[in-house]
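[agent] plan:
  1. take the single chain provided in the ticket
  2. run structure prediction with default settings
  3. attach structure tokens to the ticket
  4. add a short note for the reviewer (M.T.)
[agent] executing step 1
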Amino acid sequence: MFGTKPKSIKPKVIWKPCKGSQELTLNCPADEILYEGTRGPGKTDTQLMKFRRHVGQGFGPFWRGVIFDRGYKNLDDLVSKSQRWFPQFGDHAKFYGAKADYKWVWPTGEELLFRRIRRLQDYWDYHGQEFPFIGWNELSKFPSPDLYDAMLSCNRSSFLPTPECPHEIPLLVLSTTNPFGSGHNWIKRQWIDPVPPGVIMKTTVNVYNPRTGVREDIVKTRAHIFGSYKENPYLSPAYIASLEKITDKNKRRAWLYGDWDIVAGGALDDVWGDWNLLPRFRVPSSWRINRSMDWGSSHPFSIGWWAETDGCEITLPGGKKWTPVAGSLIRIFELYGTEKIGTNKGIRMGPLELAKQIRKWDNHLQSMHWVSSSILAGPADNQIRDVRDGETKTIADVMETQGVYWNPSDKAKGSRKMGLELIRQRLQNAKTGEGPGIYFMSNCKAAIETLPTLPRDEDDMDDVDTESEDHVYDDCRYEVLSSNYRNVGNFGCHFPGIGD
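[agent] step 2 finished; step 3 output follows
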């Protein structure tokens, strides 16, 4: 009828965040967001929509995103979910399915790429590119923060506001993850432990601003948001039942409750326990003392001082009597070359300075009577005997000028897997007392923090992930292999498959 008020058109809702973590993540103002918690709150959908909400806002081809995973299988799941949602918006977005493309492209120029990335050297495929949106699918699959940190250099844009689009383009990094996995430890340390969920961490950086020509303070922000399957009304109860039935108690706590206070990783967690930890005490003079070393420069070096028991009884602090099985190994001291455990970054100390540090701590251990016998040469990474470009002296040669000597480590075929099994058996022996064990004094923080979360290699479950922070493990492995070969027959130490 003429003059009547037209009926309002109700907009069609394509996707709406569930109340709780989805809504919080979508609206969180932090530059870097970790969407973590249990399985099932809808993290993947939220990640896709965090990118999609800025499509068609005037940024055009400058709004470019990439979502990473370590494997194509889970990228396929991401793509499948994007194909469920994106066509419903009716904006003629097109998906290019060839692996060389594997991306969405919008008529207005925006792009969202899906990419597999595994190793730090893969970063160079993206160096110099601009991605104002970066997503990480299941961040805990990545054994160290190296790739995450490297890709932050690509979280940028050359877009400048215009009269048609007067807004600054957002720079966002959104990662999704559950507890558990090879990256559990570094994620917990960098994201979970510092602040509660939803609290924004602020870091002020004084930088030169090329737009103004002066230095100024820039505040970068980071937050983690906890999500639970209980927030998602679309989940099947049968799915929750499958989580309830998980037999691995750590995985069950991780996936059902989003619990970060678990032992996770895979290679040693099932045989590691309080039985492997000892208070610090003075080592009997009859016990053999030596060092082991895994060399590192850009990555941490790891040096362990070891006492090998001879079957005598000792008195621990507090008065408890203890008689470790002869041939057991006790890590009594360590040097770990990093500014912060969990970053997998070395301090680039040269071999001469490191040798001086080793001698200093040798003298300290003896002068303070932690040990009273000579400290002998032990096994070290064999790369210290490699001649480096343009030099005639090896790392071993340089260290010997300071009186620090090393024996070759066992790098024979199969030694990596054999070393893992020997360490596992010694960790178990420490609990049962049925054979030579391996123990760690409470002052050996790097060993206690990195060994329980050491991940297995996804492609070879009989080995550890060499991209993880495995440097303490390597020096322990050299020592265990060396001790085993040295003592077969001496203490009756024998392991199946060794010396048979």
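[agent] step 4 note for reviewer: The longest strand covers residues 214-227.
[agent] ticket updated
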